[in-house]
Amino acid sequence: MTNPPRLPFLNSGVRRVLSFSAGAILAMFSLTPAHADPAPTLLWERFPGSVDYDFGEAVATDTTGNILLGGQTWGSIGRRDNHGADAFVIKFSPHGGILWRRQPGSALSERLRGIATDPADNVVAVGETGGAITGTSHGRTDGFVVKYAADGAVRWKRQFGTKFDDFAFAVAADTAGNIIVVGQVDVRGPCCETGDAFVIKYAPDGAEQWRRSFDLSGLDEATGVATDDAGDIFVAGNTASSEGPDYGAEDTFLARLSPDGTVRWIEQQETASDDGAMGVAVDGMGRIFVVGSQHLATYPQGLVAAFSGDATELWRRAFGSGLSYDGAYSVAIDAGGHVLLSGSEAGKSIVASYSREGALRWKILPERFDRGGYAFLTADGTGHIAVVGTADVRVAAGHWNAHVARYEVD
Fold first, then answer.
1. Is 216 helix (H, G, I), strand (E, B) or coil?
2. What are phi and psi of 26, to 5 degrees?
3. What phi, psi does 22 have (nearest 5°)?
4. What is the pTM of this model?
5. CATH numbers and ranges of domains, the chain
């Protein structure tokens, strides 16, 4: 079969920016809030799953406060097991009741990486498949997109890729219901492995509007995406240097694109260590927040950084002892405009809240998110947050269980 054409490169220059010194970052490790804001109250938690291994890896909320949990299962959640691992989506009411379950899959394995809702409460799930969710496989691993109606009916499916390994890592929907998917497309040559970060924009009916990739050196990936009220697109990701003294070191990048795909700017932070960006969010005032990690010594520390709309860095904060693998995995803006992040610290899951100016408001350690401390969150417009992850708790029939918890924030 004929493979789809390689994603076109963007011909925008990359502006290089100075990194913070190790001393400056270390000085930020312990940020005690000037006053203790009330920590969130746990309302309920659920452990949906199969009799096998299940992992919670993505979360979203809709306009009425329903919660969408996405992940991967080795059993049967929404329908009969399709062999190997499948993606799954479960929709919960604000009170924790299950409204519907879906298990998109093929004869091979799938993994769900990201989930989002649009203004009409449609649900969009993205990830990768080793098979053919749409009936056509392009290579060893393809990215996929599935759009569901609010009642769980499948509206459309898309599958894309090269003959190698391609991944969809994150998804967002703009105010017009357009869908933006980011990830990595494999463009390896005959001698070596490489890849490009990509962005694909779909219309609400699934028609592809455009696709772009970033002309950065080395192995690149786009790991987070967000949109603002004007339809601009914000992409966070990572790039590994392919030359120079920092060969192999991973740097982060942040890009802003217009609704038609034109690149407004790209910022790449270069350090001699491995840094990682995992998520991005935009608040109502146009400020951009990126979370991830930065290596300063043997182990990484978690990071959250704030930028203005023109990519000027406003502040950054770090957490972690430097004695364990710490990092931030997702970021959201709550109803009060505060910055929320989830991540891991000392092997435990954390959820933290920062003010717009970067002051730590509170930090909690949710119980039972046991698989390496990985947790992901979202916030609704009514003062609630939802946190998902994986728990080694035998409250359900399986081994590892997907876990979702809803909190109220004062």
1. coil
2. -60, -30
3. -60, -40
4. 0.87
5. 15-408 (2.120.10.30)
